[in-house]
Model the fold of this input.
Amino acid sequence: MSDPAPNALRRDVTPPEPIQPHESPVAPARPVARTVGAATPERLACAVTVERLNAWYGDQHSIKDLTLSFAPNRATALIGPSGSGKSTVVRCINRMHEEIPGARAGGRVLLDDHDVYGPGVDVVAVRRAIGMVFQKPNPFPTMSIFDNVAAGLRLTSRKVGHDQVERALRGAGLWEEVKDRLSKPGIGLSGGQQQRLCIARALAVEPDVLLMDEPASALDPISTLKIEELVEELKARVTIVIVTHNMQQAARVADETAFMLDGELVEVGPTEKIFTNPDDSRTEEYVTGKFG
Amino acid sequence: MSAVAFAPISARRRRVDKLARGGVALLTAVALVPLVLILYYLVKQGIGAISVRFFTTDPTGSFLGDPGGIKSAIVGTLLMVGLATVVAVPVGVGVAIWLVEFGRGSKLAHAVRYFIDVMTGVPSIVFGLFVYITLVLGGVGGSSFAGWKGSVALGLLMLPIVTRSAEVVLLLVPNALREASYALGAPRWRTVFRVVLPTALPGIVTGVLLAIARAAGETAPLLFTAAVVNATAFNYNDRMNSLPALIFQNVGQAQNRLVTIAWGAALTLVAMILMLTLLARLIQRRSRLS
Done:
């Protein structure tokens, strides 16, 4: 390997901006073929490639040899019945999986061409490049709205300006609703607003990839709709991986859809194809509601 | 129109409900009786001793003449409990952080937790004896009885209380918050200091106050570590008076004036702890609103 780029994930090599591989001169040219709603992105995000990923919870082998890639500036949905390993895949991408006691993972997860699981890679740098939104809104209860958005930057010891917070809140479609009460506690917002606050918090760090683990499953229909609209807008800046158990949601927001069953990838393809003309009979049975 | 008629509450359920409510109310009243009586007697017996002079003069130690005030005891209690708090709280909270955030599930953590539980059950006089044997008899620091040795005994007493209560509160901090912080790329230590500790702060403060109140009221660990003296001392290497020790000394005297002094000192001690609690709550509320 004469390519020096894998070092980009090492914090000691490039401290201020840990991962910007797409700006690296050695980053390979990326195909920009887009089909659905393909406006030119404001900012070219990273592709994510999962190669032969295996994950365990103790003795339970929950992801089996999964290979899957997520195109840059696109939204990919992971669907499948409960326990099929959708969330685990997402948690392996930003190495949150290993935070659970007894959990481990093996294989490769590439951010463009840098292995997230490579030797010497700083987990902290990985998570700064790959943001995450959780199932239940989890704003920091002791912090104001402003501080919640600023938290990502402050927690990684960077200075925060008002304009950064405003940009993140605008990006999450929350600015107009909270601009007059930025100093109020974040937990005073409604559930849907809290979830968008969490999205703003993730965006403030300017990640290349945003992982969304059932981001709307705890929300009412109107808040869900707002989150879905947001996913469409966010594609201009980040690559989105969204886990959902709601197939209509996958059909509405995702460019690509991957169907998982028992820790294995059954099928992946353009969302329309998966929902209308899947290759695998199991996919068809699932999307038509025969099981799961 | 449906014709469903809801049956009225049966007479039996009414009776059981009344009985249960009455029982709970009665038990509450029973628990309140001694509490109210303590406060009542404290004020009744102690208020007579209270005057400006009571707080500004040292005890004279004379049995027949003017008994003086309790200044040295107030100063000694404040100094010794203060030093013990300053040392025991960071250590105790640190142990709790290690137990919850870093050592969770490890064998060492189990051992540490076990020893802390044992320490919580150790009678306070044992801490006093321990300090007496190791520090007082050994003449460590060039003194026999000394204020700082009293602080050591009180600190040892506070440590398990602070640790145990802080650990419980840290365990209550939802894991979702830690995950949110990690997912933002925050290192572990920063997550602890910026997310976990602020969330747990009100509970930790409560535990600390409990420990302070307990230490401020302890007599046994001070009797043979800081001794009982009359003069006010500001030097930690000198013998220091304390409110509980002064109460202990005066309440057994066959002199009504000295017994009154003990009541007054007890009232002062309770008032001091009450004020401390109120102050902490006030600070806490203010810092949370901003």
